[in-house]
Amino acid sequence: MDLGIKDKVAFVTASSKGLGKAVALQLSMEGAKIVICSRSRENLVKTRNEIIEQTGGIVKDLTVDVTQKQQIIKAVDQIIQEFGAIDILVCNAGGPPAGMFEDFTPDDYRDAVELNLMSTITLCYEVIPFMKKQQWGRIINFTSVSVKQPIDNLILSNTSRTGVIGFTKSLSNQVAKHNITVNAVCPGYTKTERVESLARSFEDSGKGTIKDFYKKVESTIPMGRIGTPEEFASAVAFLASERASYITGITLQIDGGFVKGLF
User: Fold this and answer.
1) Rounded to whole angstroms, how far apart are CA atoms 237 and 5?
2) What are the beta bridge partners of residue 140?
3) What is the pLDDT of residues 193-237, one digit of tens each?
4) What's the whole-model pTM score?
């Protein structure tokens, strides 16, 4: 299927590794021009070179901390100056630390909100004016299955990411008339550095070994396995495509059946 995004400009944040990197690679494979960003210059250069080597596409890298408003503004200005548009915005920011209620203070919640919710809001405010001018846009916001089914030791993520869902649905209704779709994706357990970190945290807490962590997780997934970044990226690429033109305001689980609820 031709997704209709060849030569579209895609800005994928927090994309030097993990799910962000997988999405940037997939969109490049579909012919989009890619802008990746991260706080790590070293990881960015490595990822840019890897994507170019695999796809032969156009990939630009920017060092950006998405919790810093001025850095986002500067990045968007640079992209517009170079490419003249931002057609696809993928808002990703990683996840806050794992832990239980007693492990954190109210300041930790504020940091989590800045990381997950406010970064998404700021990115949308900066990019949507350009999407309105061209009367076309795709916005995909990363959250987690924890917005549907809270995960015990991810209280910061359970809290901060849920706000992204409310923002996504509200925004989708307000920009639909401009042919801009806004959707959220909820990755379940996927083989990334983030999940490996959770496995180490599980072991450090004395609950069992890293092997025990994966065995426990896989037992909760009807498919019986952890997902791959490529599977996640394929779903995001579809939402970013011309083919998904009548899909907006949804919260899509990509989790192998992990979430047990109806909604």
Assistant:
1) 9
2) 90, 183
3) 878 887 898 898 888 999 999 999 999 999 999 999 999 999 999
4) 0.94
SS3 letters across 1-50: CCCCCCCCEEEECCCCCHHHHHHHHHHHHCCCEEEEEECCHHHHHHHHHH
Adjacent-strand bridge partners of 91: 141
- Dihedral angle computed from the Cα positions of residues 26, 29, 30 and 33, in that order, rounded to the nearest 10 degrees: 90
CB-CB contact of 42 with 68 (8 Å) = no
Cα separations in angstroms, 172 against 78, 162, 165, 253:
26, 16, 11, 18
Question: CA-CA distance, 21 to 27, in Å (whole number)?
Answer: 10
Check: CB of residue 183 under 8 Å from CB of residue 250: yes
Domain boundaries 9-190+227-254, CATH class: alpha beta
Residue 118 DSSP code? I
